[in-house]
DNA sequence: CATGAATGAGGATTCATTCAT
DNA sequence: CATGAATGAATCCTCATTCAT
């Protein structure tokens, strides 16, 4: 029960399989085959199928949280911070398309399965955005008539849905930079204090 | 007439059950019980379980499309149109919380199940938003550096995620008006042409 | 869920299969095949595998209890009653060899599986014997230095083990009458009050 | 030497675990944990799970046989011999409650698993009782109308079932002496030649 | 000899779907 | 049209056994 490498292999395989088939239609044997281990081996590392899903989710979200935290630590301008957050999120999702899918599944399905599961990692992740908004508001850069807890959902929803572009064949032509740029245009302009300067505009 | 009535009862029951338990954990017998018909009766009106999901989705989205089309027909100002769209969407979802859930499930899961299913109703629905954006751009009211096909996803994602507020106990304190108002602030400000006037501002 | 006939068929099949293979090595599909129903049908009548075992047990023991109660009602002499009990038990087990096996399995295994299951039927069955012993004691026919609750176990154990004769090929040559006769010799002589007359002896 | 020690540890652990959980619900890992060895180690000393059960059984029954043989060698009176047998059996079962359980399991289950297994040890054990009966009959002390091969089953069944008293919480109040005494009353009285003297009676 | 991670066959159970009534 | 008992394919998970270290 100590082979971390094997655990990672299973997580990676599960991410791929869940993304491709969805949580419910994915079979344990699919994951096992993808990870090149026996079915039973999976249960040496995870309690059950749901546990795999949650683990995939938490592990991956955890990584993003760590990355973004590190990046944000180097910056003090809320606008730049928002930019970094958005860009990083989209980059990660583009790089790991399956992850975007798994997040979607997780957020919309697991709560039906395991009522007691409180998705603290996800809350932590979106709360980072709410904090940036609050910071900007306190500095007079962002409108104060925007509720940070609504904004965070708004922004996350937008990011999440936009990420689906890379997974559905349609509209796959846009690059991360394009999309991030456009999203930021709208977000930053939309959230800036009325008399503040718009990002990228003199 | 009797048939249509029974079909509607099943659709309503399915919406409720899918919303509560999710598509996969919902059982046909749950829907049958909710609709007060026998399990077998359901198969007189639908081909299979997926067919019910798609029917629920298309029927409900169809209604919204019709409603919004009617409303939009009375208006020519793209900003007002966007406002109407957003408000109407949120109102509908607030009124019928289950619907919001089913939409979420449908969009993220069905495509895994039935590859051949092209969700034309949904595309039609979001394309209406893209059209409004295009209209605004042609009138010089909206920024032209925003790609309408990205904007529609961005806006829909934001609306969809925000709708989850009413289904998760957390943050249930916000009213439709508040949320719609804040969303519109960001959207309209964000999308307006730089020298255009902000909505609600002289 | 009302076809009592089908339920009986499954009970009969289960009795046979459990007797032949033992509870744990018996597969649900074996029972289904034996009963000529689909595997799933079994779950329309029973909650799970253990439930089948318990049902078989209680149903069959219940029948014996009813039979013996009826017989005992016609008799007042405790010695004759004991004779009837013993003979009836052995006859039933001889006729339905599988039942003897299932009782053995049930008594020695189920309590490991379902702690909360109180085998009231079985207790009722053996308590009938304790009651006969008490009756005989009160009439001065049976020794009073014998504890009825120990005697009932003693007698049941003897009957039960002796029943195995018909299921193991060895010693299959003895008839019910022979065995019942010998058992009764020992039991009645053993339990009679020292100065009472032995059964069948002047 | 070291090997034998480890083998004994496993036997002891298995006895405990089988008694507690039953053969089928017991896991090899349970036994390994109880014996404080690795799962794989068990397979250095036993061929498979059944082999453990049989070994436990034969080893323990073997010990009892040896003990009883030794005791019986000192005695010539069949009545006393029967008394010794019964008392010794109950004492052993009381001291090692788990053993009583394992015997019950073994006798009722293993024959379903391994058809080819002839339980010679057990036969040897009960045949000792048949031999005592025969001896008593030849000396005119025991009734000759009792078949020794039926009597041995009868007596063993009674002993075995009575032993369950210590394992089920109910009726745990009886001591070995009490139970052995009562059993012997019945057995000896029941088996004595009609004009012979009853045990413990002048 | 000892370990325990890995294996993979096996089986109880569920539930969408059918069809005789 | 409506019913709901019956079907049986499908799958998660367990655990005895193996074998590389």
Q: What would CATH call the class of the largest domain in chain A?
A: Mainly Alpha
Q: In the residues of chain A, how many domains can be counted?
A: 2
**Count of runs of 4 or more consecutive helical residues of chain A:** 9
Strand count of chain A: 0
- End-to-end Cα distance of chain A: 58 Å
- The CATH homologous superfamily of the largest domain in chain A is termed Tetracycline Repressor, domain 2
By CATH, the architecture of the largest domain in chain A is named Orthogonal Bundle
State the largest interface. Answer: A-B, 51 and 49 residues
Largest sheet, strands/sense/barrel of chain A: none
The share of residues in helices of chain A is over 70%
What is the residue-mean pLDDT of chain A, rounded to a whole number? 84
């Amino acid at each position: 029960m100590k082979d971390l490498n094997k655990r990672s292999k299973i997580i990676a395989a599960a991410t791929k399989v869940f993304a491709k088939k969805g949580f419910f239609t994915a079979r344990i044997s699919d994951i096992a085959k993808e990870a090149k281990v026996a079915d039973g081996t999976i249960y040496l590392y995870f309690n059950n199928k749901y546990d795999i899903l949650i683990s995939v989710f938490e592990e991956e979200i955890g990584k993003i949280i760590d990355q973004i935290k590190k990046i944000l630590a180097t910056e003090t301008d809320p606008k730049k911070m928002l930019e970094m957050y958005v860009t990083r999120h989209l980059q990660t999702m583009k790089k790991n398309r399956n992850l975007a899918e798994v997040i979607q599944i997780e957020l919309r399905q697991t709560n039906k399965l395991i009522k007691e599961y409180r998705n603290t990692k996800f809350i932590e992740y979106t709360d980072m955005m709410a904090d940036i908004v609050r910071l900007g508001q306190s500095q007079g850069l962002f409108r104060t008539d925007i509720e940070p807890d609504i904004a965070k959902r708004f922004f996350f929803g937008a990011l999440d849905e936009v990420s689906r572009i890379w997974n559905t064949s349609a509209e796959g032509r846009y690059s991360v930079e394009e999309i991030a740029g456009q999203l930021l245009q709208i977000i930053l302009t939309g959230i800036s204090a009325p008399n503040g300067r718009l990002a990228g505009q003199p």
